[in-house]
Amino acid sequence: MFLKIATCAVSLLCAGNTVAQDVTYRTSIEPIWRAQCMACHGEQAPERADFLLDEKGYAAKSQGPRMDTYEHFIAFVGWPDTGALMRRLDDGTGKYAGGKPGNMYVHLGATEGERAAHLKVFKAWVGKDAWNLNRARRRGDVPAITQEQLNRVKLNY
């Protein structure tokens, strides 16, 4: 009996790890992005540098920076906009969020359940314990991201 329970427990643990490892940009993130984000962040959206020159103007037109390719997308996780994706999509429970969801969290789904499920996928994609709201440089009470934090980021294609 003990062997059967132990075997079942090991199987469940391995299944959980497999699910996390199977989260990739192509199979998990891109479909969510296409359904929830493409209208404002597609190929018609401005490049990041252009967006930064007139953020308010683009926001008034419901346009964010271009994020329609893997290369465009990961710039908002790693560098140059370290943590931007996490800050925008966070549900308010992230360290330094102060209980306030990011401004794009509402766009992760039509219901709270859908948003929570999509956020879970994004967190798994970024990597175990890699979801953080830090930037490349310290801002206010939020310290700069550390090398140790960056090493946790996975972003499987």
Structural notes for this entry:
The chain is globular. With 157 residues, the chain is an all-alpha fold. Residues 1-19 have low confidence and may be disordered. It has helices at residues 2-21, 25-36, 38-41, 48-53, 55-60, 70-74, 84-89, 112-126, 147-152. Helix 2 runs antiparallel to helix 8. The longest helix is centred in the N-terminal third of the chain and has 20 residues, at 2-21. It contains nine helices and no strands.
What class, by secondary structure content? mainly alpha
Shape label? globular
Q: Major β-sheet, in short?
A: none
If you average the pLDDT, what whole number results? 88
Number of strands: 0
Q: Report the helical percentage.
A: 40-55%
- Share of β-strand residues: under 5%
Terminal CA distance reads: 41 Å
Rg calc:
17 Å
Query: Which stretches are poorly predicted, pLDDT < 50 over at least 5 residues?
Result: 1-19
Tell me the number of helical segments per DSSP (H or I, 4 or more residues long).
Answer: 9
| SSE succession | HHHHHHHHH
How is the secondary structure organized here?
Blueprint: H1 2-21, H2 25-36, H3 38-41, H4 48-53, H5 55-60, H6 70-74, H7 84-89, H8 112-126, H9 147-152
Helix pairs in contact: 2-8
